[in-house]
Amino acid sequence: MKTFKMERLFVIILLILGGIIVSVPFIWMISSSFKPESEVLQIPPTLIPENPTLENYANLFESMNFGVYLRNTLVIVLFSFVGLFFNAMAGYGFAKYQFKGREKIFYIVLATMMIPAQVTMIPVYLILNEMGLTNTMTGIVLPGLAAAFSIFLFRQFMTTIPTDLIEAARLDGAGEFYIFFRLIVPIAKPIFAVQGILTFIGAWNSFLWPLIIANDESLYTLSVGLSLLQGQYANNFGLQMAGAAFMVVPIIIIFSFFQKYIVEGFTMSGIK
Questions:
Q1: Is residue 224 classed exposed, middle or buried when 0-12, 13-18 and 19+ CB atoms within 10 A define those classes?
Q2: Burial class (CB in 10 A: 0-12, 13-18, 19+), 141
Q3: Same structural domain, 42 and 21
Q4: What is the DSSP string of the chain?
Q5: How would you write the pLDDT of the chain (272 residues) with one tens digit per residue?
Q6: Residue 58 and residue 43 in one domain
Q7: What residue numbers bound the domain in which 197 lies?
C-alpha cells in the first residue's frame, strides 16, 4: 500500500513538472506580448513585465489591419457554423432515411477523408475560378460548408437515436424540418458541442485556403495576417508575440471550457 502511494505521488509530481515545462513557452508568449521592445530583448530576461504596456496590441490594429483580419475570420467562423447544420442534416439523412444508394454514397463520403485537402485545392480553385468566385469571401467560405468527417460523426451519433421516436413524431403530424430542429438537434447536443468546437478551431486557424483564393489583403484572415507580421516585422518580437497570443488565447479558453464535450462526443459517436 505504501509503495502504491509513493508511485502515485511520483506520477503526480512528474505530471506537474511536465505541465510546467510545457506551459513555459505559452506563458513566455503572453508575458512578452505586454513588454516594450527594449524589455523583450533584455538580458537577463524577465518573466513578468517590468513596464507592462498594450502598445503591441494597439499596433496590431493600427499598423497591421488586424481589425479587418478579425472581421474576415469571424465571417468564416459564422458560415462554418452554418455548414455545421448542413453536415448535421446530411448525417441525419444517412442515419435515418432509406434511399437508393445510401451506403454507396456514404462510402464515397468516407473515401474523401483519405484524400489530403491540399490535393483537392487546385481542382476546387479552378472550379471557383470558372464561377468567378476567386478573390471573394464567397469563394473562401463555400468549400468549407461540407466536411466528410463532420458528416461521419453526426451519422454515427444519430444512428443511436431510436427510430420509433421519429416515427411517433411523424404520426403526430410533425414535419421533417420540425422533427430535425425540435427533436433531433436537442438530443444531439453533445455531438453538436464537439463539432462546434472543432469547427471553430478550424475556421479560426484557416490559413492556406484564404491565402490561395484571395489576392486582396482585405480578405485575409488572422492566420494570414500573422504570417505577414512575421515577414514585415521580423525583428519586432513583442509585436509578434502579441499577434500569436491574439490567435492562440481564444482557442485555449474555448478548449479549456469545453474539452469534456470532445471526449464525451467522440465516445458517444462510437470512436474509441
A1: buried
A2: buried
A3: yes
A4: -HHHHHHHHHHHHHHHHHHHHHHHHHHHHHHHHTS-HHHHT-SS--SS-SS--SHHHHHHHHHS-HHHHHHHHHHHHHHHHHHHHHHHHHHHHHHH---TTHHHHHHHHHHGGGS-HHHHHHHHHHHHHHTT-TTSHHHHHGGGG--HHHHHHHHHHHTTS-HHHHHHHHHTT--HHHHIIIIIHHHTHHHHHHHHHHHHHHHHT--HHHHHH--SGGG--HHHHHHHHHHHTTT-HHHHHHHHHHHHHHHHHHHHHHHHHHHHHHHHTT--
A5: 667 677 788 888 888 888 888 888 888 888 888 888 777 777 777 777 777 788 888 888 887 788 888 899 999 999 999 999 999 999 999 998 888 888 899 999 888 888 888 888 888 899 999 998 888 999 999 988 888 889 998 998 888 888 888 888 888 888 888 889 888 888 888 888 888 888 888 899 888 888 888 888 888 888 888 888 777 776 777 888 888 888 888 888 887 777 776 666 555 554 44
A6: no
A7: 54-270
> What gap in Å lies between CA 238 and CA 138, rounded to an integer?
34
- 8 Å CB contact between 195 and 86: no
Could you tell me if 140 and 187 lie in one domain?
A: yes
- The verdict on 62 and 43 lying in the same domain is no
Residue type, 1: M
Prediction pTM value = 0.83
